[in-house]
Every structure is written in structure tokens, then in C-alpha cells.
Design a protein that fits this description.
The protein is α+β, with helices and mostly antiparallel strands. It is about 35% helix and about 20% strand. It contains 13 helices and 13 strands. The strands form three sheets. Strands 4-7-10-11-13 form a five-stranded mixed beta barrel. A two-stranded antiparallel sheet has the order 1-2. Strands 8-9 form a two-stranded antiparallel sheet. A hairpin with a 2-residue loop joins β10 and β11.
């Protein structure tokens, strides 16, 4: 979308200004995306230089709530990927829509669904302004139906808070595999939901049990140069760079040194992946190779940071399964995480971009990817999961069957 901004008749644009702002007489012509980016940068810089001017700060905050670019805010205002900005951007969308005091409150559901690229929509009748509970339930249902990640294994969160504050508290922190382009990754971190029930959020995926550890000292140090500026856009266009491929072949060598059968399937998968030239699916905005490349880059970063790697095997739909199954995944782990007592399980799920029709409308749902460490309870032969934290790893799940699981509701929603 292009914006036309009227300017004074006597203003003469230079050649540079014409290239950036168009040649239309009496109007500045600018892409809305670029306008939001630079308006956001200006407001953030202005607030920093005028931090003691409360009135100026309030004006800038109003602009940012209405025209702020979330990726710029994420990078500069919230301290980047290492802060609470890792929480889902969805919460910011809902809070900003609430700030605008939309005339018809129920319109928030439709607007948010469009902004967040939801494929499941909640159609509700008009909600009176004093029916906040009905709107809150609609917002909660919309988020859960579209697989937004919430904390289910955490301290109790009071339901007495407004729905926006509740979602902010319960929103699960996502650890993107790469720092640059984190918001794009977080946008796709959703569980594919088959249905909601009193038991929780029903989904399908693969359950992994972590086992053997590869210590940092098992991988030789490399004297090659790593491109520190590589980001997700580079990965999407070009895949892994030469340095990253070199380090992944070092990891392959370590796997080949372990002659037991349970390592060879993973070694073969990794070799085929590094030697493959898979082309992304044209209509898919999140092809599987792209996701694997990002996770491989994350593993390289972990190797260079002298973190531990832990191998995992798919175990079917129940925690007691998977005996004798060879390894098919590699996850990055911190030393403290390895001290966790008892078995460790990770749930993963990935789905392609899909086109869906609902009544007279057609929606293009985003590809979804989830990789979370979970705790497990088994009831009536069905594994019930609780989120613990995000986990990054390279998984080879080609040929592995998805199994049904249920993510339990937070305790505060069960009272």
C-alpha cells in the first residue's frame, strides 16, 4: 500500500527526493511499510533525546501504538531477542487494538485475525461495551484455536486481570534459533490445533526422548571464519554458508565415530541433508528445508559457544515407546539443562502453508512450527502435555507418523 501525503505547493523536490518520495505534484508518495519503519525509528530516537519531556513522550507513544513497526520496536525498544520481547507479538497486536477504542468491540476479533494471519476465525454477534467478559472469552478462544503458545507448566496467573494482561503473562517465551529475523520466526511458532475441549488443546506431532550427549570438547575447534551477520533472510535465500556446512560435517564425523546402530540413521540423515539440493515448495512461505537450515545454523552457533548437544529418538505417542529406535534429532542444551532429573521429552510439530475456505471467504494459513520441552501425564492411553520451555534442534522426521496429544490448560483456567 502507498501513502499520499500532501505538501506545500511551493516545495520543489530534488532528484533524490523524487526517487524516494515520488514525482507526483503536491504529494509525497511513500510505501506504508517504509513510513511505519521510519516513523517508529524517529519516535524512539525522539523519546530517547527528550526523555524528560513527558508530554513529548506521550505523543510519541500514541503514534507508536497506532503506526509502530513491531520488528523495529522488537529490535530497539525491547532490547532485542534476549529480553521479554521473545514473547508472542500477538499480545502487542491485541493491546494496540484495545488502545484504539474501536467503536464495535467485537471487530477486534476480525481485525486481529487478519493481522495475525489466523485461519480459524471466531464469528460472534455484536458485543455491548459492558459485556467485557464475552469479548475476553472470544479473544481467548481465538488465540487458542489458532495455536498460540501459552505457558501450562508455570506459576498460577490470576484470572482477575484483563484478558490482554492475562495473555501477556501466559504467553510462552520463544527462543529463536537466530537473533536476526526473530519476529518472523516467532510469528510461525504455533501449534496446529485440531479441536479444543475441557481437557485442553488437541494437536498432533512427534514426541522425542533425549538421550546421549555430545560434549563440546568432542568437536574440534575450527580456524575458519564465521559470518556473524548471517540472518534468517540469508538462510532463506542461500541456505547454510560454507563455514556452517564445514561445522556440520565436523558433527557428522563425530556421529560416524560412534559405530552403534542407533547413531547411523541420524548420521545418514545428516549426510543426505548436507548433500541435498531440495527446492522450496513455491506456495509455501515456510518450507521444511528453510526451517532445517535455521536449526542447523543454531547448532553451529551452539558448537562455537561450547554448548552441549543431545541426541533424541522419536518414541511414538506414549513416553514408554521408542525402545531400540535409532536417533533422528539433535538438540542444543545448556549444562544446567542436563542436570534435570528424570527423562526429558520434547514435542515438535510442523505443518505447511494451507489455503482454507470459510463461508464466503478464503484464508491462507501460515506454516506452523513448534519445538518445546514438555512434561507428560498419561490418561486413558493419551499423552497430556505441559509446556516447560522452548527447545531448538535439528529433527529428521521424514517418514515419522504424527500422534495425537493434548496440551493441558493452565491451572488458572481450570478453576
Amino acid at each position: 500500500m502507498w501513502l499520499l501525503i500532501r505538501h506545500a505547493d511551493g516545495l520543489v523536490k530534488s532528484l533524490y527526493a523524487q526517487r524516494e518520495l515520488g514525482k507526483l505534484t503536491g504529494e509525497l508518495v511513500i510505501k506504508s511499510q517504509k513510513f511505519k519503519k521510519y516513523a517508529t525509528l524517529f519516535c524512539l530516537a525522539f523519546c530517547q533525546s527528550m526523555e524528560h519531556d513527558c508530554s513529548a513522550r506521550r505523543r510519541c507513544e500514541r503514534i507508536l501504538r497506532r503506526a509502530g513497526a513491531y520488528n523495529v520496536l522488537h529490535k530497539y525498544e525491547d532490547g532485542g531477542v534476549e529480553s521479554d520481547a521473545r514473547r508472542k507479538i500477538t499480545v502487542s497486536v491485541f493491546k494496540d487494538l484495545d488502545y484504539r477504542e474501536i467503536t464495535e468491540p467485537s471487530d477486534i476479533l476480525a481485525i486481529a485475525a487478519n493481522v495475525c494471519s489466523y485461519n480459524t476465525r471466531i464469528l460472534v454477534p455484536k458485543i455491548a461495551k459492558d459485556q467485557a467478559m464475552s469479548l475476553s472469552l472470544g479473544i481467548l478462544t481465538l488465540c487458542m484455536s489458532n495455536g498460540e503458545m501459552i505457558k501450562t507448566d508455570s506459576e498460577e496467573t490470576a484470572l482477575s486481570k484483563r484478558i490482554f494482561d492475562f495473555l501477556e503473562d501466559q504467553s510462552m517465551s520463544i527462543g529463536p534459533p537466530l537473533q536476526y529475523g526473530a519476529l518472523t520466526f516467532i510469528k510461525h511458532c504455533r501449534v496446529p490445533v485440531s479441536r479444543l475441549s475441557a481437557a485442553g488443546i488437541h494437536t498432533e506431532g512427534i514426541l522425542w526422548k533425549l538421550s546421549d550427549v555430545i560434549r563440546p570438547d568432542r568437536l574440534r575447534q575450527s580456524l575458519l571464519f564465521q559470518d556473524k551477520d548471517l540472518n534468517q533472510n540469508n538462510i532463506f535465500r542461500n541456505g547454510l554458508d560454507d563455514y556452517q556446512r564445514h561445522r556440520m560435517f565436523d558433527l557428522l564425523e563425530v556421529l560416524n565415530q560412534r559405530n552403534k546402530k542407533r547413531y547411523q540413521r541420524l548420521a545418514n540423515n545428516l549426510r543426505a541433508y548436507l548433500n541435498g539440493n531440495e527446492s522450496p515448495v513455491g506456495s509455501d512461505d515456510w518450507p521444511s528445508k528453510y526451517c532445517m537450515d535455521m536449526m542447523a545454523a543454531c547448532i553451529v552457533n551452539a558448537i562455537d559457544s561450547k554448548k552441549y548437544l543431545q541426541l533424541a529418538r522419536p518414541i511414538g505417542g506414549l513416553p514408554k515407546g521408542g525402545r531400540g529406535v535409532p536417533y533422528r534429532a539433535i538438540f542444543t542444551r545448556d549444562r544446567d539443562e542436563l542436570r534435570h532429573s528424570g527423562p526429558t521429552y520434547i514435542f515438535t510439530s510442523w505443518s505447511r502453508t494451507k489455503e482454507r475456505k470459510q463461508e464466503a471467504s478464503q484464508y491462507r494459513s501460515l506454516a506452523k512450527y513448534v519445538s518445546v520441552e514438555v512434561s507428560i501425564n498419561t490418561t486413558n492411553g493419551l499423552a497430556r502435555l505441559k509446556n516447560r520451555k522452548w527447545a531448538n534442534g535439528l529433527c529428521f522426521f521424514d517418514g515419522e507418523a504424527n500422534h495425537p496429544f493434548v496440551f493441558e490448560w493452565p491451572d488458572s483456567l481450570c478453576r
